[in-house]
Amino acid sequence: MKFEKVLPPLADRIRPKTLDEFVGQEHIVGEGKPLRVMIETGEIQSMILWGPPGSGKTTLAKIIAERANADFYQINAVLSGTKEVKEVIEKAETNLKYYSKRTILFIDEIHRFNKAQQSVLLNSVENGTIILIGATTENPSFEIISPLLSRCQIFVLEPLGVKELNTILERALTKDEILSKFKIHIEDRDLLFLYSGGDARIMLNALEIALKIVKPTPENEIFLTKEIISEAFQRRYFKYDKSGEEHYNLISAFIKSIRGSDPDAAVYWLARMLLAGEDPKFIARRLIILASEDIGNAEPYALTLATSCFTAVDYVGMPEARIILAQVATYLASCPKSNSAYIAIEEAIEDAQKYPELPVPLHLRNAPTKLLKELGYGRDYKYSHDFPEHFVEQQFLPDELKNKIYYRPTELGREKILKERLENLWSKRKQNKKVNK
């Protein structure tokens, strides 16, 4: 099936224009429900729409703007920043001052804004210069700053069920200017709904792709088999969310590329995640973990840089945060690697679980009272700084583990220096043990 002209996506072509056309979310837009009352009375307040992808957040925002007779501006927090927000606020001030007209600012994925970016909105929301509608897939209690949250009403949207998806599908087949010209037969609607995961936009996008794969019969009939539907979902981008398979695939490829010292692959997978809308702070957290787990003492500065990366990303936000993430990812990929610290703590935890009650040697115990001193706590402890090279041989592990070595540094990067020093100390310990014998 070929379209005669370039058209907007099917999801946009059949987007509801009124509340009566809107499907689902009866708990907030049904008769007498809070959001519907707000829209019908025209008393629109700033709000946060919290729900999964494809549940109707953008559609509701546009319906609200239409009913409110307000100027409507839409930005995406992944692609926009403080500059764009301030520009809208300036236009809103002009609208209100000279034309007594309200302005609605719809910010999709508002949770992607950092604290500073969100703070820019506070005064304008407070004094009514703008009506903010924020859309988020994340819990606003964690992702939206408290002062802004207190100025907004929260409406929770639910995933669409089979009934709602079927209603939307029927509208597409019968009302769309292109699809309504054909008799479209879908072999297994339930399969289409299953693959959609409650996301109407994904369902409609996949339907559109499926219709491009097959050719209509001379009678203008189109038959969509199970195989065609499955192929359509394979051809579209993976659904990328925080519990989806592609989310874990991409972050896995990113981490493994850095571990494998390939900065080019690392920055490619980073770009893929950012374009898919991944939270930059999630990526920054993973870099902090990687800096210790896979680089460790081969380059101790890696941890400092990764921690600074998280702070900078939190301060700056997208889209500039992409530059910071790229700098740190490429540096970490280029660093010498060591997992010695990771192995050390894993082995130590294993022994700590195996021997959970081994006593601390008396000379290492704290002795804050006279009684404890009389019991031998702290006796014979040797203060390392009182000895040459600030080192003196003494036992720090329990007797059962006294010969155990957990940390085995590599000969890579800065860790090579640590290894040489420790080997020198181990040699002295062995010599001291022979002398003591």
Automatic annotation (TrEMBL):
Protein name stated in the entry: Replication-associated recombination protein A
Species name: Kryptobacter tengchongensis
Pfam family, one: MgsA_C
SUPFAM superfamilies: P-loop containing nucleoside triphosphate hydrolases, post-AAA+ oligomerization domain-like
Keyword set includes ATP-binding: yes
Recorded family membership: Belongs to the AAA ATPase family. RarA/MGS1/WRNIP1 subfamily.
Phylogenetic placement of the source organism: Bacteria, Pseudomonadati, Candidatus Kryptoniota, Candidatus Kryptobacter
CDD domains the UniProt entry points to: AAA (cd00009), HLD_clamp_RarA (cd18139)
Keyword annotations of the record: ATP-binding, DNA replication, Nucleotide-binding
PANTHER family reported in the protein's UniProt record: ATPASE WRNIP1 (PTHR13779:SF7), WERNER HELICASE-INTERACTING PROTEIN 1 FAMILY MEMBER (PTHR13779)
Record flagged with keyword NADP: no
Domain AAA+ ATPase stretches: 43-160
Record SMART domains: AAA
InterPro entries the UniProt entry points to: AAA+_ATPase, AAA_assoc_2, AAA_ATPase_RarA/MGS1/WRNIP1, ATPase_AAA_core, DNA_pol3_clamp-load_cplx_C, MgsA_C, P-loop_NTPase
MF-aspect GO terms: ATP binding; ATP hydrolysis activity; DNA binding; enzyme activator activity; single-stranded DNA helicase activity
Its job: DNA-dependent ATPase that plays important roles in cellular responses to stalled DNA replication processes.
UniProt GO BP: DNA synthesis involved in DNA repair; DNA-templated DNA replication
